[in-house]
TrEMBL record:
The keyword DNA-binding applies. This is IclR family transcriptional regulator. It comes from Saccharopolyspora ipomoeae. The lineage of its organism: Bacteria, Bacillati, Actinomycetota, Actinomycetes, Pseudonocardiales. Residues 71-252 form the IclR-ED domain. It comes from the Bacteria. Keywords: DNA-binding, Transcription, Transcription regulation. PANTHER family: HELIX-TURN-HELIX TRANSCRIPTIONAL REGULATOR, ICLR FAMILY, HTH-TYPE TRANSCRIPTIONAL REGULATOR RV1719. Residues 8-70 form the HTH iclR-type domain. The keyword DNA-binding applies.
Length: 266
């Protein structure tokens, strides 16, 4: 990321530094941040010092590394608590979990990916849980893919022309294969995955829409041995109904779609 002058560039650099702590290891040094964001160490040091003075970042003098501070935790908690998408989804998440007995989640689209806002954990002895607030790429997993399928075409082009990180051996990284899958997702109304974001997990997801377009996704996830083709096929219509109810609460409009008769996980 090239350095630029002016207030807008400085604000973007500060935001990028903060966002870097949501994706990678819990602690980062000045050199790591500078390398990841293509900034000078002097600029990174100034930004980290400013954020530390406001408790958004905390400094460990022994390791000489930084981590998110208590003010960042407070901001995150407030954002989750006040999220319109989370509030609209929560009653329906519990209802769907009680029907399917698997973990049900709600994700929000954010800059550079999506984050889990909340979950209602399944009732099986062996079940799945997700990490709230961590940013995940849109090309990996059913929640990300169904959001990506409904993004602006220019945004899709930018993402598919960049580096598509393989989180697992099953993460789709071929741009043309992804384009074809996104078209299928738009047609049938849901996305499915098997071990794409987390090796031992399977999931089904449907996009949620607000007044100005796609805002996130609702998903059902569980161990891969339970998220079979038959489970996906049976679950997709219920998940679409749930997503449409959340969309209605947000004042959005879901696109026309036809649920496929096969639950093939990809």
């Amino acid at each position: 990321m090239a350095e630029s002058s002016g207030g807008t560039g400085a604000t973007e650099r500060v935001a990028d530094v903060l966002l870097l702590f949501t994706d990678g290891p819990p602690t980062l040094g000045v050199s790591q941040v500078a390398r990841e964001l293509d900034l000078s160490k002097a600029v990174v040091h100034r930004i980290l010092q400013s954020l530390t003075s406001r408790n958004l970042i905390a400094y460990d003098p022994e390791t000489r590394e930084y981590r998110l501070g208590p003010a960042a935790a407070a901001l995150g908690s407030r954002a989750l608590r006040d999220s319109d998408l989370r509030a609209a989804a929560l009653p329906f998440l519990a209802e769907l979990r009680d029907k399917l007995h698997e973990t049900v989640t709600i994700s929000a689209k954010v800059h550079g990916g999506r984050v889990y806002l909340d979950q209602v954990v399944g009732t099986h002895e062996i079940t799945m849980s997700v990490e709230l607030g961590k940013r995940f790429p849109l090309h990996a997993g059913s929640s990300g893919k169904c959001v990506l399928a409904h993004c602006d075409p220019d945004e899709v082009d930018r993402l598919l022309s960049g580096d598509l990180l393989a989180l697992t051996p099953n993460t789709p990284t071929d741009p043309e294969a992804l384009r074809a899958e996104l078209a299928r997702i738009r047609e049938r109304g849901y996305a499915a995955s098997a071990g794409e974001r987390q090796g031992d997990a399977g999931s089904v997801a449907v996009a949620v829409f607000g007044p100005v377009g796609v805002v996130g996704a609702v998903s059902v996830c569980g161990p891969r041995f339970r998220v079979t083709e038959e489970f996906v096929a049976a679950t997709a219509p219920q998940l679409i109904e749930t997503a449409d109810r959340i969309t209605a609460r947000l004042g959005g409009t879901a696109p026309a779609r036809a649920v496929a008769t096969t639950g093939r996980t990809t």
